[in-house]
Amino acid sequence: SDIRYAQNRATTTQQRSRVNFNTSTTYDIQFCNGIYAAVTCTCPAWVLATDPYTRGPFQINLNNDFSGVTISSPAAGSWLEFDSLGRPYVNPCSVTSAGTTVTVAYAGEANIPIAIQQQTGMVSY
Question: Is 67 helix (H, G, I), strand (E, B) or coil?
Fold first, then answer.
């Protein structure tokens, strides 16, 4: 739902948004505050989005509420970005949008792949 939130935020505000995978148990959602330069894949400033539930900064630590849950891919330090049309980009700069899979694991259980489709950004699991 947080990936869908980032995508929805990008399309409704017309501001590029992204999910940063900081570590295997932390991530945040940011938006580009300013005009995104597609040619150089740069943003003047990435700002933390507001969490609609807490009304605070959108920063998630899985250890706080979901002990044992980890994100095994993409690797820590990666991000999934959405343009104003909701198309996904993985660690841009990329000419075309790219699909990806976010893999979530729970201690003792099978990995759960969350697929983000190329071009449409449809999220499925």
Answer: coil
Q: Tell me: cis bond preceding 113? Omega within 30 of 0 counts.
A: no
Alpha carbon 30 to chain centroid, angstroms: 8
pLDDT tens, N- to C-terminus, the chain (125 residues): 999 999 999 999 999 999 999 999 999 999 999 988 877 888 899 999 999 999 999 999 999 988 899 998 888 888 888 988 998 887 666 545 667 888 999 887 889 999 998 888 888 88
Report the C-alpha gap between 20 and 76 in whole angstroms. Answer: 8
d(CA 37, CA 119) in angstroms, rounded, equals 20
Do residues 123 and 3 lie in contact, with contact meaning Cβ atoms separated by under 8 Å? yes
Return phi, psi of residue 12, to 5°.
-80, -30
